[in-house]
Design goal:
six-stranded mixed β-sheet; two-stranded antiparallel ribbon
Length: about 280
């Protein structure tokens, strides 16, 4: 009897040991089969900030601008082209566009400049279509502010009583009276250099796509070009007084071509000046 009890205890011990060993192997297997923790995904790079570009469709509302022999209004050509240019710029995902007018409304010239500066635009492009006495003349041209007009605008801005404004990141009201004009002049000179670079890019890119007026880069005292801290240019898309360009400017496909050339010019400008 005693031998049976001892044998039974030995058997139970063996069974218990086997169960413990099996449980150990199961735990080890489970530990080995457990999938490794997933690596944390790398943080997505932040998208590059978009450059802010102000597009100014010339004229509007009660001011039709130039009128072609067939009755085409400049204000309609400029608004359509500006919208197409804005669309193409937005598609690049590198630019945010501000239109100084988005519909057939009248906007005073200085208000157009003010809207661009309020939006912190880095570039200002005013879009127009010309009309010349000689109907044979045709071609695109681009204007920057003349040096004489630039000097007058800088002097007028420096003389204003209300100087509580930022120009090129500087609050003029906190500057000494004799220093503010110097800072303004420095900002204006830097802006002029940017305006010239933009005009050269427009001539280079559009010259590959459409005819250019003789001496395509010119200077004048256009009010919309007087922002002291925003490089600015005014482009005349062509001559509505010329029968060929009158017909072309009325075509959406031609305005798309013009907008595409202007996009390339703006990209060329920022490729150089964004790094400076």
């Amino acid at each position: 009897m005693r031998d049976r009890i001892i044998a039974r205890r030995a058997f139970c011990g063996l069974v218990a040991g086997a169960a413990v060993a099996a449980a150990g192997r199961g735990s080890a297997y489970a530990a080995q089969s457990k999938p490794p923790p997933r690596p944390k995904p790398a943080p997505r790079p932040k998208p590059a900030p978009r450059h802010i570009v102000a597009i100014d469709p010339g004229h509007g509302g009660v001011d039709p601008g130039a009128i072609s022999p067939q009755g085409i209004y400049e204000k309609n050509i400029t608004l359509s082209t500006a919208r197409e240019l804005a669309r193409q710029l937005d598609m690049t995902r590198r630019f945010r566009v501000v239109l100084t007018r988005a519909s057939d409304t009248f906007v005073p010239l200085r208000d157009r400049v003010a809207r661009a500066r309020a939006a912190r635009a880095e570039l200002f492009l005013s879009v127009h279509a010309d009309a010349l006495p000689d109907e044979e003349m045709r071609g695109l041209s681009v204007y920057t502010l003349s040096d004489r007009a630039s000097d007058r605008e800088t002097a007028a801005l420096a003389m204003r009583e209300n100087k509580d404004d930022f120009v090129a990141g500087i609050r003029l009201s906190r500057q000494r009276r004799d220093i503010a004009p110097i800072l303004l002049d420095m900002a204006r000179r830097q802006t002029n250099n940017g305006s010239l670079a933009l005009a050269h890019a427009v001539v280079a890119e559009l010259g590959r796509a459409v005819p250019l007026l003789e001496r395509p880069h010119r200077s004048a005292g256009f009010v919309v070009l007087t922002a002291p801290d925003v490089p600015s240019a005014l482009v005349e898309l062509g001559c509505l007084s010329n029968p060929v360009e009158e017909r072309l400017l009325a075509q959406h496909a031609y305005r798309q071509r013009l907008a595409h050339g202007l996009v390339r010019a703006i990209e060329d400008y920022f490729a150089v000046h964004a790094a400076q």
